[in-house]
Give the backbone structure.
Amino acid sequence: MTEKMIKAITKVLVIALLFTIVLILGVLYEHFTNEQFFQLRNQLQVIEKGVVLDGKDFFDGLNINEYRITWIESDGEVIYDSKASSDTMENHMEREEFKEALESGYGQSSRNSVTLSEKTLYSAKRLPDGSVLRVSTTQLSVISLVMSMLRPIFIIALVALILSVVFARRVSKKAIEPINNINLEDPLSNDVYEELSPLLLRIDKQNQKIKAQMDDLTQKNKEITYVIENVSDGIITLDKNGKVIMSNKKAEEIFSCSEGNYYLDFCRNLDYKFAVEEAFKGNSSTCVINIDNIVYKIYASTTKSENEDISVFLFISDVTDEESAQKMRREFTANVSHELKTPLSTILGSAELIENGIVKPAEIPYFAKKIHEEAARLLNLIQDIIKLSRLDEGNLTSEFVDIELFDICKSVRESLLEKSETREISIDIICDNSKIKGIKPVINEMIYNLCDNAITYNKEKGKVVIEVKTLDDKVSLKVSDTGIGIEKSDIPHIFERFYRVDKSRSKETGGTGLGLSIVKHGAELHKAKISVESEIDKGTTIEIQFPKIM
Ligand code: ADP
């Protein structure tokens, strides 16, 4: 901008200067011409007196080289000329100054020479006898004058040009300086040219807009970073060379990776390698890997940047629970098949023996009893499987109601009375008026299973105590027995499906191995905690802590 301003100012100054020179030359030239005419007129007056007095004789011995004197008859014929013979001169009738002098007594005119280098000034006066006396002189023409002054003009122009450039530099620097010093961060605080106010106002508005957008972007960026950093899954992006561009906290925790690491540096699993390679080929792929007994599922997919660079996005999820649930389901199916097969084989075998007449009539009641018992076991098993799958579905929340635990304990005791009396086992209930929010049949089933086990795994004439009390923030339900107890090593497993400490005893007593699994599922459904305390030959206490109704 400064350069442009300097050029513009210099141009204007040079043009103005040249124009001034031309104008001054013009004015001066005009002035000197008028001066010349004035001189001519004076000379004319002096010569006129002589001519009027002496006639043609006046010219004899007259030596004036500066001027040319011509005396012309009223018909235009030249009587005398100081520079040429009057005989050779043409008629002057048509000369402008002559005509004017004849008409008004005085006339003057100027004419350029053929080469335009000179200009002749004529001054003419009518004498009393009607003839005209003319005095003329030559001077340089404008062009010649300019040409003769070219050198000084050129020097003046050069000096003017240099001065113009210096001046233009100073002026533009002075003009630009405040603009250069404008504080664009706070445009309205600047004290510059008034003409810049609309621009500064606009810049201020733009600044505010940009600031708002920047704040918005920063906020969004923070939110995204927060989400990426705190998401429970690992996220990694790899550049086209397979190096980590970005990894979140979780990914760093899983792989101990960091920016710039090559993808195979932090995980050498083959499935993972193939999945990432596939992603680099443009195909999304998944793999499951196990690190320190935690199962991760990795989703590898391709992302293309604007410049067509392929990068890979890895999403790492902890699927240990899903994997173990799937494993449990597979094992459960295998176990169910096995558990169903055993009683069915016994039933089939016994029925076949009776059908083929192999069994003696006296032995038929024995086999019938066996079929009856195994069928009952089968029924129990199927009922327990149905109960478990209902709990597994987990969509029973709508059935939650307020439950008086004492009522349920009483009803359970009544249901188990026959079984407990057979073995002379007492069932005591110590219960306040504790209430919980729960699904009645499930709570009933849980307490029934605990009490059933407390009787089954008890000694003759043993004791079962059901104790319910409301604590600070929970309701505790304890079922204690004076039975055989459970080995410490077995305690973590007794809630697993089909787990029995003593398989033959459980079968003998009609157990399915699913009772405590149902208790565990029921507790999870009610957000309750289970704890077990047991001592061999002394007894077992299983406590369930329900959340208190607030
Ligand atoms: P089951 O139908 O065999 O009783 P459960 O799931 O109810 O199946 O119990 C799992 C195992 O835990 C039982 O087989 C038994 O060995 C043990 N058990 C459960 N409750 C008691 C208890 N009160 N005393 C001793 N052992 C118990």
